[in-house]
Amino acid sequence: MNRTALCFLFICCLFSLSAAWAEPVQLVPLDAKLEIVSGQIKLTRVGSTKTDIITQGCELFSGDLLETLRESKAVLVYGDGTNMRIKERTLVEVQPMSIKVFKGKTWYKFTKRGTEFRIETPTLVAGIRGTEFEVAVSSRKKASVSVVEGAVAVSSIARGRRAVLRPGMATHCEPGGQLVAPYNFNIDKKKAEWANADWQKAAAAPEDVNRLFIKYLNFKNEYGVDDPRTVEAKQALENAKKNKK
Question: Crossing angle for the helix pair 209-223 and 228-244, nearest 10 degrees?
Answer without folding.
Answer: 160
